[in-house]
Write a structure and sequence with these properties.
30% strand, 5-stranded antiparallel beta sheet, globular, 5-stranded mixed beta sheet, alpha+beta
């Protein structure tokens, strides 16, 4: 993954030292299997959930689902049994539930990206994914995918993918990921998300992944980084972080270190680029069409 590739060398240098020092842990589970019922988030929000009277999300075509982990056995969706290929399962679905068979307590993450229908009746991907991590967010064998935890799932996916790309053994990668306190990580994101102005995608993910690789994670890494308050958009738009669309806001919080994109009239993107306190560029670009096949 591009955002993590800058730190891949650093990550696996520390991983190598880590395992030389500690050795590989023997598996204590006798390959017991958990059947996890996975629940996708609601797409159409009840009126009482929103303070924004203009909220009306684009129509959902389907979900693009990604599952990453070394202990995945299979996934049952729409009467089909899918098997992992290179420690991941990819599929699209319009159903709300599916089940995942996995080795007990072996970490995996699920990322579900909404694919929507544009005003021109084309498929598009604009919104950030929902997601979650097992077993840290497992409640009685149910894993509810949530918008704020889409970020924690993205982080775990980045670690898995970098390990696979470097051809490290499954045991090495799995053991490294298992030793991180994901429960605390997910809980921190959940606590911060109680503030309606918090967006986990606004933290510095590059610095976060680097610190994870060094074993020096701190909660401050989940704080917003390089942001500007009080930016008024030229037109009413959708934000790519779904929960923020539930809030009626007079101005926006934007990133100052990279372009910000918003969905306008469900067929154009508003590009917002911070240059200085007095110069904030806003321009329209075409909405990319979804063409990916799984």
């Amino acid at each position: 993954m591009k955002i993590f590739s800058k730190n891949a060398k650093i990550l696996f240098y520390f991983m190598s030292l880590f395992f030389l020092a500690t050795g590989c842990r023997e598996l204590v589970e006798d390959y017991k299997i958990d059947e996890i019922q996975t629940v996708l988030p609601e797409w159409d929000f009840p009126e009482n959930m929103s303070t924004n009277p203009k909220i009306s999300l684009p129509s959902l075509a389907f979900w693009k689902v990604e599952i990453y982990g070394t202990g995945i056995v299979s996934c049952s969706v729409e009467n089909k049994i899918l098997m992992p290929v290179q420690n991941k399962i990819l599929f699209t679905t319009s159903t709300k539930n599916f089940s995942i068979s996995t080795e007990v307590n072996q970490p995996f993450c699920v990322i579900a990206t909404p694919v929507t229908v544009s005003a021109d009746n084309e498929l598009s991907v604009f919104f950030k994914p929902a997601g979650n991590c097992y077993p840290y967010e497992d409640k009685n064998n149910f894993l509810h995918l949530r918008w704020e935890q889409g970020f924690s799932a993205f982080v775990m996916k980045s670690l898995f993918c970098s390990g696979f790309e470097k051809n490290l053994t499954e045991v090495y990668v799995n053991d490294f990921i298992s030793r991180f306190n994901w429960k605390k990580f997910c809980n921190l994101i959940e606590e911060k998300s109680a503030d309606e102005n918090y967006n986990p995608w606004f933290c510095d993910s590059v610095a976060l992944l680097q610190k994870l690789s060094e074993g020096s994670f701190t909660a401050t890494l989940l704080n917003h980084k390089n942001v500007k308050k009080g930016v008024v958009l030229a037109v009413d738009c959708f934000c790519d972080y779904v929960p923020w669309n539930l809030i009626k806001k007079e101005s926006e919080l934007i990133k100052t270190d990279k372009p910000n994109i918003y969905l306008y009239d469900n067929k154009q993107l508003l590009l917002v680029v911070y240059k200085s306190e007095k110069i904030i560029l806003q321009d329209f670009i075409n909405l990319p069409i979804y063409t990916e096949e799984i």
